[in-house]
Amino acid sequence: MIIAIDGTAASGKGSLAKNLSKSLNLHHLDSGIFYRVLAYQAIKLKINNKIDLIELSNKLSINKIIEIKKIKSENLRSSLISKKSSQIAPDKNIRKALVKLQREYVNQFLISHDGVVIDGRDIGTIVFPNADFKFYLDADIKIRAERRTQELIHLNYEVIYQDVLNDLICRDKRDKNRIEGPLIIAKDAFYIDTGNKSEEFVLQKALKFIKSF
Q: Which pLDDT score, from 0 to 100, does residue 74 have?
């Protein structure tokens, strides 16, 4: 089973994915981690040239993703890496390399797991268009900005709400207007407005939809 969860930044995709994976005993994969790891490596190696970035993405492996995620988990959520990953994500060749890697990762886990819950921005439309279940999450941008601000503060980052809000406005614009893998609602996706909704409410709504089939 493959469950695809797409949506805007800070809409609660990750929380729903984690909660669904626990409730249904499935493996969880945050597809954004692929772009964050690539951004982390690009910053660390001081790579900005487009050709070098593409080469770096082609060399990225599942083992490297797991390794960096394990030792740099919190750092991968920083504003700097979020901004960098959002900037490199629209590139056609980079997306092609990372989509291929995401599919390999999921297929590898499907061998030993009953299924995978994967969240991102083009999972149900591009990466796994034939997913068994698809969800699309969104909320008012001010609510999302407050969530992200509190999340970063919890990770000990010094952030200002207005800066986070402005960043989300820019990210939404880039995600929805990029040519490759734009953020759109898949025709067969179940839409959930997560604004002022608890994680438990969103989880139960998603479970009810899945169990209706």
A: 66
Query: Which H or E run contains 39?
Result: helix 32-44
In the chain, the domains with their CATH numbers are 2-204 (3.40.50.300)
The set of long-range contacts for 102-105, using a CB threshold of 8 Å and a minimum separation of 24, is: 102/29, 102/31, 102/34, 102/127, 103/127, 103/128, 104/62, 105/29, 105/62, 105/65
**Residue 119 dihedral angles phi and psi, to the nearest 5°:** -115, 150
Tokens of 8: 């805007």
* Residue recorded with tokens 């993405």: 57
- Output the pTM of the full model: 0.91
Mean pLDDT of 62-82: 85
Lowest mean pLDDT among 2-6, 15-19, 74-78, 106-110: 74-78
Element (H, E) at 162: helix 161-177
Mean pLDDT across 113-136: 96
Distance between the two ends of the chain, CA-based, in angstroms?
A: 13
